[in-house]
Amino acid sequence: MAVQYPKGFVDVRKVGNPISKEDLENFVEKAKIMGVTLATVKNSKYGGFDTYCGDTNVLNDMLEHIKINQNTLKKISGNDKIIIGYQYLTDSGAVDVGTFACTRGKTILFNKFMYDDSNYLKSEYSKMVELGHFAKGTTYKNIVDHEFGHIFARNNKRYLSGLRQLCEQRAKKQGITLSEYITKNISLYAEYLDELPAEINSMRYGSKSGFAITLLKEAGLI
User: Fold this and answer.
1) In sequence order, which residues have a C-beta less than 8 Å from that of residue 209 and are 6 or more positions away?
2) More confident site: 92 or 50
3) Phi then psi for 41, rounded to 5 degrees?
4) Which one, of 190, 72, 216, lies nearest residue 138 by Cα?
5) What would the DSSP string read from start to end of 103-160?
6) 107-111 sheet: strands from edge to edge
7) pTM (2 decimals)?
């Protein structure tokens, strides 16, 4: 299905087919059972997910990783309830074409621009991994884990301070800077220290190296 780009674009973009009523109802019911609330999104009573045009397997992956992280969130805050929404994310009024998702408090918003074409979503994420921007071994499935890392850090300051201190110690032993250690072992994105807990959590469930799990254990976070 070819649709016009959002305001600010003159090209057309091919996306998938609109989600069926049955698939939407299944997604909403699964989310409800998990205690996940759908965000208030303009002109939608389904958190915007009624406008989803991608592969429904991506939505199943989304819920699976939300469920994985809810247990950790409950241990940290005593409350595992989160909110999810689906809409075009914007930057200064224009559609943000480079962001996969964002977190506001306990609300995770997934960028419709990225997610409406599942092949595009997967390939764009893979490109960022290949460039070293995102952690090696992670995939689009770990976008959810990344966003939960932000939520964890907001509920427990040690997710940033503890991980940063540990990385500093390791870097010093190796005779390199903190920046060098992070970009070498985690990702370029994690060099923005606010992204460190998010990238570590993404690695925890995406990378098979065990690096993130070891780091979290040494920091006393798991």
Assistant:
1) 136, 137, 203
2) 50
3) -125, 135
4) 190
5) EETTEEEEEHHHHTSHHHHHHHHHHHHHTTSS-TT--GGGHHHHHHHHHHHHH-THHH
6) 37-38, 83-87, 107-111, 101-104
7) 0.93
